[in-house]
Amino acid sequence: MKLYINSVGIISPSLQASGEWQLPRVDENYLTCIEPDYTQWIQPQQLRRMSRIMKMGTTAALMAVKTGASKPDAIIAGTAYGCLEDTATFLTKIIELNEEALNPTPFMQSTHNTIAAQIALLQNCQGYNQTYVHGAFSFEHALLDAGMLLTDTPAQTILTGGVDELTKAGHAIHSRFNKYRKQNTPYLISPAGDGTWAGEGAAFFMLSGANESTVAIADVHTFMASSSEQAFQQLDNFLKQNQLDTDAIDFLLTGKNGDQKNDLFYDQLIDVRFSDQAFGAYKHLCGEYSTSTAFATALAYTILKHQTVPVSVLNGSLNTPIKTLLIYNTYGPHHSLILLTV
Amino acid sequence: MSSGVYVAGAGALSAIGHSYATSFLALENSTHGIRPLSLLSSIYSGTLPVGEVKLSNEQLAAQAGLAKPITRTALLGIHAAREAIVDSGLDIKKWRTGFISATTVGGMDRTEVFFPDFLKDNTQGILSDVIHHGCGATTDLIAQALGITDFTTTINTACSSSANAIMLGARLIRQNKLDVVVAGGTDSLTRFTVNGFKSLMILSDELCQPFDASRKGLNLGEGAGFVVLVSSRVLQEENLKAKALLTGFANTNDAYHQTASSPDGRGSFAAMQNALTMAGLTTSEIDYINLHGTGTLNNDLSEGTAIARLFAEKIPAMSSTKSFTGHTLGACGGLEAVFSVMAIEHQCVFANLRFETTMPEVNIPPQTKFEHKTVNHVMSNSFGFGGNCSSLIFSRPSVG
Amino acid sequence: MEQLMADLKVQIIEALNLKHLKPEDIGDDQPLFIEGLGLDSIDALELIVLLQQKHNTKIANAQDGPKIFKSVRSIAEYVRANQAAA
Q1: Taking CA atoms, what residue in B is nearest to A333?
Q2: How confident is the model at residue A22 (pLDDT cuts 50, 70, 90)?
Q3: Is the pLDDT reported for residue B262 higher than 60?
Q4: What is the pLDDT of residue B398?
Q5: What does CATH list as the number for A216-341?
Q6: Topology of the domain comprising A3-208
Q7: Cβ contact (<8 Å) for B201 and C42?
């Protein structure tokens, strides 16, 4: 089942919904979103209660709807951690106020489904509404679900996206696992170093089973692998199911995050399976976060639509036309593949 | 029915019982499990009525064969999901098997241990307490314990989460992506949710009275409920006995308010109606509704209004088993699906405990006592904050 | 009473994050909910917390909210009548 991308809404540290983009500003070891003027999108009455992730998620969704031709029939979101800032606020208040006279708003908004629910409210969308919260697979599983809905009923539009926010507490905790760069470096991917940059973002897509646009998500696959061999086997099977081999992939968009331990796998992947293929990376543009593949999908959409790869994304040379693009991301043992075609 | 999805096994863990069989006994005897909060440390300990699972983390870990406790949410999940698999008698390794869990708190119980030290100094707090904070991490822990590797995911749509997990499992089987899916949900009691619901002022300080005119709010609970869903091919080749068929399901959104349900229950009405359409059933064919029935003013009125409108011809027997278990949040859809399967297996309907007076706005009295009767089709409702509404319909294998 | 109402207006704007309003935009007798300022049930809960934290005034039953929170004046009157001794 092909999921045609009718439109994209994105809030990220680099790529904008207009299709314009800029190299992000790196603060120490993290990237944060370039946020739009939300009052252009959401009434002050609704905006006043929203945390940053709510604003980012709902606005990215509204951007996708606005540029799309139709209203969504269903809404599916993926978020690994949901409204983390509200969660930390409520946890803090429980401790500070010793469980008494607590404000309800941060609790009410801490639930992961708040974003998809808010979008439904703003769009008055009474159809299917779902939120996947499965770590690094959250966005991919939202896509899988959208594909299943479109298999049943192709002539509908599913608003599907991924969103996660960078918070102070989240950054502090992840830093203690030595995930992030300790030195300030101007480049993330090449050369790789110790640790990555933290990131965040929101990207939503209006997806349809009917051929309204030429760029489509052809297939999605997630799997756990404890060795490179296992991962390559899964990759081969995935390509075979799509009647493709690695030669047919015109561009490989990898989830390299600049941490040399992590990127070793991708180097191997390129050497063993994609040595003749054009490839690149995206996490220097959005940072590392659980739903970064939503950003990658938005980037892949612009690459396929405009048939050009930004210089900072491309590694080596490129052969055009780019008809088939594969996003390969790993996050620990979690591996995901998103295949796009034009 | 070739695209049929069958329930081949079920597992339940809640305040009323640690297994499918003991839970049924409690339901049969109309014995609830709501007691003053005791295991969880909170200023509400000893006073607030809740449905706690009276097993410590150490006991649960030992049962699960783990050297030391992990997040309680995962421990509860392992217990119930494992029972469901054993109950099915299926060797899940032989088939494309998925695990779909739902949770609203994930590893929050451990995060609460981590957070006070971290708050004082962000270089403090034991990291192993926070690594399973994410909902997905909890699910991965359970999947690992069960040995399921083909497909694993997690859903959080607040209190309708685990109904949606079961629905997704059924869809994956119908589209031939998986043969077997263990689906349901798990949530442990945490200070986070206790205080959250307290701040929303919808916790009753007495035993809850769902669908009663004088209801004062809900009692929280904890637990886990899972079913093993299989395709007709698995059922035949493995020669399994089906407990029930999942014949209808629907997911809608009320799109009315962030927390409140619409007065006419338009989201729940649509969920119930769409599930009936899918099952090819008329309202008069539903023999029992396992209500969402939280006991809050808003939910029960909204759900009751939707039922009164949809089932205008004949109101089926209906009850909220939250009057037994408390509201188990992300687990309730799974637990109540298991109770719905029990109603079919044992041909009975359960009591809505402590019911006295019908809500004046809608004259629909729930079932007041346990009763044996013919139960061919059961509807299970689960609704959540954010307007998420889901209905499942389970049918007797011989008539489904 | 006038001072209390003025204080309440500032506190309500802050607690409910009504950035688009100034205290003088809220009339003493203006309805706060639905047709007035457009507040909802969550705001009512936030107001209950505000009265407890800032005015030492408890509202035990959320169902009493709509009556008490009719206007800034009705809130002030409730605080005057029900404030616990400090």
Answers
A1: B140
A2: confident
A3: yes
A4: 82
A5: 3.40.47.10
A6: Peroxisomal Thiolase; Chain A, domain 1 (3.40.47)
A7: no
